[in-house]
Design brief:
Elements lengths: L4 E7 L5 E7 H24 L1 E2 L6 E2 L8 H19 L3 H12 L4 H8 L3 H20 L1
Antiparallel strand pairs: 1-2, 3-4
Helix pairs in contact: 2-5, 3-5, 4-5
Length: 136
């Protein structure tokens, strides 16, 4: 598969810049993570409580994901996406509807016009195949 690429520039504390070339999917995930971290920081500032008499000064500290963890998670997402792409059309559709769409086996069976047990078997076989693909 050909992926469009984008360049991301990070500015370090010492003023140096790091240039990374990543796929648009990775860029999108980085932007999403950045928005999430900024949102967490805003929530953290809102949760800060300080009493006037000095009795209590509390801040809820939310765990921050470092860059290496983020890269590892994005790699895992990329590998999962690639593995899901190797499933049959029916299995891919059913896995996406169930795990990412939140639909039940019965609802998916109604969409596909098949028995719920057919959907269950299809998803189980897809999970086995994904497990093999991701273990490679």
């Amino acid at each position: 598969m050909d992926y469009p690429f984008a360049e991301i520039v990070y500015k370090l504390a010492d003023g140096k810049r790091i240039h990374l070339v990543v796929t648009m999917e990775v860029k999108s995930l980085l932007e999403q993570a950045d928005r999430q971290i900024r949102s967490q920081r805003r929530q953290e500032r809102r949760r800060h409580t300080e009493y006037v008499d000095g009795v209590t000064d509390t801040t809820t500290i939310l765990p921050q994901e470092d860059f290496a963890d983020l890269i590892m998670r994005m790699d895992s997402y990329h590998r999962l996406h690639a593995a899901i792409g190797k499933l049959s059309d029916a299995q891919r559709r059913r896995v996406l509807l169930h795990y990412f769409g939140g639909f039940t086996h019965k609802q998916i069976a109604e969409f596909d016009g098949v028995a719920p047990m057919t959907v269950t078997d299809s998803i189980q076989q897809a999970r086995k195949r994904l497990k093999k693909l991701l273990a490679q």
